[in-house]
Design goal:
Blueprint: H1 3-41, H2 49-82, H3 85-91, H4 100-138, H5 141-144, E1 150-153, E2 158-162, E3 175-180, E4 185-190, E5 193-197, E6 203-207, E7 210-215, E8 222-227, E9 230-233, H6 243-251, H7 259-264, H8 268-294, H9 305-330, H10 335-338, H11 341-358
Antiparallel strand pairs: 1-2, 2-3, 3-4, 4-7, 5-6, 6-9, 7-8
Helix pairs in contact: 1-2, 1-4, 2-4, 2-8, 4-6, 4-8, 8-9, 8-11
Organism: Candidatus Paenalcaligenes intestinipullorum
Main location: membrane
Membrane topology: Multi-pass membrane protein
Amino acid sequence: MSLFKRAAVSEILSHMGVIFSTLIIIWLSVLLVRLVGDAANGSIGAEVVLGMALFSIVTALPVILAVSLFIAILTTVTRSYRESEMVVWFASGLSLRSWLSPILSCAVPIAILIAVFTFYASPWAYRQIAEYKQRFELRSDISKVSTGQFIETENGARVFFTEEPETEQAELGQVVARIIDPEWFSVITARQAQVEEADNGDRFLVLGEGHRYDMQEDTAAFRITDFSRYGVRLESKDDRSSDEYIRQQAAEQIKARPTSMLLAQPDELALAHIMWRSALPLAALVLAILAAPLGAVNPRLGKSGNMLTAGLLALLYMNLINLSRGWIAKGNLDFSLGVWAVHGVFLLLACYLLWRTMRITPPKPI
C-alpha cells in the first residue's frame, strides 16, 4: 500500500471513529430520555429500558455508519485542500481520482457491514423490541402498577395509584383506582391490596377495607359502596401469553419481518422494505464517492460553503429514497425501477462533479 493510500485510509478511519462515537452518544442520550419517559407513563416496563435502548441502537447503526463515513471522507478531503496538502499530492503525480481507491477501501467494508445490519440484524432487533412491548401489554394490570406512580392501562380505561404497603402480608399499600366502563365512572379506594389465585386458576385482585364511588354521566345516578373485602377478577391472558404467540405478533410488524419472509411474500409493502434495506448500503457507497468532489474546495473561499452543499445533497438523497419507498408501497413506482433509480442519478452526479473538479480550464484569450 502506497504512502498516500495509507495516510488517506488512516485519516478517514480516524475521523469516522470520532464522528461515529459522537453520533452514538447523541442518539443514545435522546433515546434514553424518550424511553425513560415512556416507562414513567406506563407504556413500557422500567426493567426493559436498557434492553430496548441496546436493540434500538442496532436498528439505528446502518444510518449512523453511512452518515459517519460520508462526513469522515468529506472532512478529510476538505482538510487536505485547506492545509495545501493536496498540492503536494498533485505535485507527486496524483489527482483527485486517486482518492477513489482509499475511499472505496474504507467504504466497501462499511457497506457490507451496513448490509448485514439492514438485512439481518435490524429486523431481529425490531422483533426483540416488539416482543418486549407485547410482553408488557399482555401483563395483568396489577403487575404494571408501581408504588408512587400513576399507571394507565387498557388505553386509559383504568388508572391506578398505590403506595408502599404498611404490612408485610399486603402486596400493595393504599390503592386508588379509576375505572371507566360503558355504564359507570367508578373511583375505588382501599387501604391495601393483594393478588389471589382461585382453585380453577382464575386470578383476583383482592382489595382490603375501602370504598367505591359510582357515577353515571349525564344523569344524577350516584352510589357509594363500603366494603371490607372486594375482589376484581383479572382478565386471563394465558392463551395469548405464550412465547410462540408473542413471537408471531412481533413478526407481524413489517420492520421486524426477516428478509427471507419478505422475499417469500413479495407484496407491494414487502417490496418497499426490501428496497429500503438494499438502499442503505448502496447509499453509503454513493455518498462516499460523492464526498470526494464535494470536499474539493478553494482554500481562499469560505469554510462552510461546501459543507452546506454536501449536507443538502445528502438530505435530498435520503429523502428521495424514502419517497421511492413510499411510492413502491402504494404501487405508484415499479420496484425494478425504484430500487436503483435514485442511486443511479446521484452516482452520475458524483461522476459529473468529479470530472468538473478534475478538468483543466484553458486560459481565456486576452
